[in-house]
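Retro notes (design track)

What went well: tokenization of the new backbones is finally stable.
What didn't: we kept losing track of which sequence belonged to which structure.
Fix going forward: every design gets posted as structure first, then sequence, in one message. First example under the new rule, 481 residues:
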């Protein structure tokens, strides 16, 4: 049943309330500040899931209103998992995932895809192939290829492999109750990354797991992850990120600094660390008896996670596993409760203030982003509804860094200053060239070779061209005659 609450509660952001209480003068800008604005200014993504209730149109109107106002990255709670997307062999259902992608595009929200290869939420027809290695490899490859191809260019990042490490703290893969590991062996992980990359070479690809916020001591899950990332990188397996789920509880005070240590270890391997499923729960029995000091403590831990996130240059996304305590897997499946930023009445908790305070304490000029300009400001797909509510994403006035420049002569685009050491193909001095019309719609894409790109198939007219060499983008208006 849809519960309807008054929208007036959310129309007054928390800061307004605090400022009023503190007697501060409030300017219009501060009153409108949201997490997503501050995140965007810092080149970061902060967000939460869309709960299954949202997909089923069974959620309070406050949910979506807050979600799109406050956050700029989203993930589906259950709707893009294997059992949801391929309920019967080779019969795919993208309806709910498409609903989320449409919503994300309309609201300029980045999409994480969760999850491709996972031992859980696998449909029975897959389990029927238990132990049949060749068949399971074909099933996994087909699944990954079709799902990732369907969402190519729309899902920015995938949890390619989820929760593949066992819980025995013996630094090894999960070898039981995993149809993939038992049938295929550890090579299912490597293959999953390769197949995902083949289907969408631009997507970021993560290994995602829980209990990796518990430090890097020998035998820990986190140190095993770091070892595997080393191996993957050494073998050219296309992993770009690790996700630490971080389902913790109020007593777990050391976890923020453990996450910092993990980020630093991964930075050495040129891999991003994302917080992908954060919640900080209270023991379930405490519900109804929590004091202001308890909520302040929860806020304090949120604050420390946000501080770490903003201070470590190879962290990109901060995703919570829910928006409101009214809809959280903690109450349904865990002995925990009230782990999120908003309470059951959609009122922001001290944890919300802590996140905002951390963002404000880390000025945009000091926060580094692991993302290129293309990722931070992706071109919009107008056909998919991405142009509904704002101005074009491509700003011809954007300034190129590091001296890259482009010039059009006839139908050839000449590019100088490509960062060869970082370009996808240093030998041929290559860069990716995207052409957009003046409304920001992508119309043509190619790869430059030897510093030039052929634009002969494009009709006469005024366009915006973006050249990206793997580390830097330049955006320029061109006239094709
Ligand atoms: O929140 C999800 C819940 O609705 C499902 O019943 C559950 C089934 O496995 O999955 C929950 O989400 C999990 C996520 O996909 C992976 N990490 C742990 C999350 C919480 O269980």
């Amino acid at each position: 049943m849809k519960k309807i609450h008054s929208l007036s509660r959310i129309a007054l952001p928390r800061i307004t309330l605090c400022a009023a209480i503190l007697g501060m003068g409030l300017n219009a800008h501060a009153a409108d500040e949201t997490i997503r604005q501050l995140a965007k200014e810092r080149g970061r993504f902060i967000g939460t899931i869309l709960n299954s209730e949202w997909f089923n149109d069974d959620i309070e109107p406050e949910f979506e209103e807050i979600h799109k106002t406050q956050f700029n990255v989203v993930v589906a709670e259950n709707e893009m998992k294997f059992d949801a997307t391929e309920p019967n062999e080779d019969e795919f259902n993208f309806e709910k995932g498409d609903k989320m992608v449409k919503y994300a595009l309309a609201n300029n929200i980045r999409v994480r895809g969760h999850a491709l290869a996972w031992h859980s939420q696998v449909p029975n027809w897959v389990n029927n192939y238990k132990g049949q290695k060749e068949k399971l490899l074909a099933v996994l490859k087909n699944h990954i290829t079709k799902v990732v191809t369907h969402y190519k260019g729309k899902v920015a990042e995938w949890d390619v492999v989820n929760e593949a490490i066992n819980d025995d703290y013996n630094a090894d893969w999960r070898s039981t109750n995993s149809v993939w590991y038992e049938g295929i062996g550890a090579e299912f992980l490597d293959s999953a990354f390769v197949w995902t990359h083949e289907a969408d070479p631009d997507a970021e690809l993560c290994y995602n797991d829980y209990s990796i916020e518990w430090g890097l001591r020998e035998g820990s899950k986190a140190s095993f992850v770091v070892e595997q990332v080393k191996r993957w990188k050494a073998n050219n397996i296309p992993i770009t990120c690790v996700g630490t789920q971080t389902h913790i509880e109020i007593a777990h005070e050391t976890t923020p600094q453990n996450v910092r240590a993990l980020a630093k270890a991964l930075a050495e391997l040129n891999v991003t660390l994302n917080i992908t499923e954060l919640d900080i729960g209270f023991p379930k029995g405490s519900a109804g008896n929590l004091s202001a000091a308890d909520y302040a403590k929860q806020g304090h831990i949120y604050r420390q996670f946000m501080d770490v996130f903003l201070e470590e240059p190879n962290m990109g996304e901060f995703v919570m596993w829910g928006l409101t305590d009214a809809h959280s897997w903690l109450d349904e499946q865990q002995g925990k409760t009230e782990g999120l930023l908003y309470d059951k009445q959609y009122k922001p908790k001290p944890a919300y203030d802590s996140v905002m305070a951390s963002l404000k304490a880390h000025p945009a000029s000091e926060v580094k982003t692991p993302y290129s300009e293309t990722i931070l400001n992706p071109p919009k797909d107008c056909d998919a509804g991405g142009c509904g509510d704002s101005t074009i994403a491509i700003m011809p006035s954007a300034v190129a860094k590091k001296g890259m420049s482009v010039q059009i002569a006839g139908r050839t685009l000449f590019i100088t200053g490509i960062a060869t050491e970082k370009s996808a193909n240093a030998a041929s001095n290559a860069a990716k060239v995207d052409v957009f019309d003046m409304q920001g719609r992508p119309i043509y894409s190619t790869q430059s070779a030897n510093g030039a790109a052929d634009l002969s198939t494009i009709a006469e007219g005024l366009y915006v061209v973006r050249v990206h060499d793997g580390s830097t983008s330049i955006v320029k208006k061109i006239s094709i005659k």
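Added context from the reviewer: Residues 52, 77-78, 120-121, 245, 277, 329 surround 9MR (CB under 6 Å).
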